[in-house]
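Amine oxidase: structure, please.
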Amino acid sequence: MDTKEGCHFDKETGLTEGLPCEGVIVPPTLESISGQRYDAIVLGAGYAGLVAARDLATRGHKVLLLEARDRIGGRTWTSVIEGYPYEMGGTWVHWGQPHIWTELSKYDMVDQLEDSAKGLPGVQHSTSYYFEHGKRTVSLAEDADNLKTALTAFCDVDGELGKTVLPIPHKPFAAATEFTKWDQISAAERFDQIKDRLTPDQQGILLSTIVTASGASADQLAFTEILRWWALSGYDSEAYMAYVIKWKLKCGQTGLSLRIFRDALASGSLSYRFSTLAKRIDQSGGQVTVTTSNGSQHVASYLVCTIPLNTLNDVVFNPPLSRNKVLAAAKGQVNLCVKAHAEVAGTDQRSWWGIAYNKRPGMMAGAFGDGLTPAGNTHLVSFSLNGAFQNTADRGFAEMKTAYEEFTSAEIKRLLYHPWAQDPLSKGTWAMYGPGFATRFKRDLQASQGRVHFASADWADGWHGFIDGAIEQGIRAATKVSTELQKVPSARL
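Here you go.
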């Protein structure tokens, strides 16, 4: 089946919208107790929503899953084209990410892991630097040394590799005073503090790492956002790369999300509606009512809301959201980057990375070989600064094609991407915060309001913005709702 989402440019057929996706659910509606009150409604079928729905349904609670898209996965979905899986959103996982690893173990999918960054046998891996002070190509070892020096200097604010700021990375406010102090400064301000200790290449690789991680310029990003990834990865540059951009699934993320969805269905307690947009959420009389864009209403004892941060204010809540939730959603997370895929002729770029730091709009911050297609060509994945390729579809793809050709000097066979920043259901990619945002808003975003519980990777304690963070949030929300349902018999059907 094809989803309505995503854009694809093929050298032979030109530009089309919509991509193949096994996560499209047919039939789009299954309601076992229509017109009755559910134990819980779960709003959104990304990983947070899928896990919450599964955990509630398998505990015997009657659940209605409402999803505005025609597919599962939210900001994490796979499109298989000519036998090759392209991850349109979230991709990489690691055994050091506890929640995703539990899911892979649960469904016996550990063998699906493959090394995204593995080059071709016998081919020297190389990295090209595209910096304002010049372009050159270095060995993988030299590049790793440059990253280690730069990232360690950047994160070592205390002589202990940042451990006094984030001593327990999955508990971000464990050292609240230290964290709050460093959360107020931008990545640019921290860069200015240490840049004189770095070579021009090390400065360039650090700035590129910041942009690639966040999709934003260093002055827009909180320093603690990079420090958080660093701490979660064991305060080490080599581990940092392994945790965030090395291991992916052969079957694609949709393979895992389908397992979770089918597990929920097998319980017999799950109903669902896809292509159903929630517009209003009312709490009164010990129940929650969701009104959709077509005027239909659905009632439950509790609601798990997984709406992304940047779109949270697009739904009417009654009673209204707390002041800090409204302010946080209005401010939003800063990551509006473009993740794009290219199939390029031949295998030369499979063992290659390109790293750039250039303030020119449309310039890629990074691209690397991510696999070989069945046609024997290289799959490249790239990340660009906020604002890149955001013209109309035709112009945006023309700009992307030019950027790839400039970056790689390769023949482009196909391009594809999901324009997350323009997507009204996301308005951004994985969550990254501006200075002071976490300190001011994260705990308020996590807080429940009455019978509505909020679950999103965008405000997870640990790997927020990652698949692991989404699963963390889905588990917690389901546990809260299930506990309340069991505690108050009258809340149940």
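Notes: Residues 110 and 331 are 38 Å apart (CA to CA).
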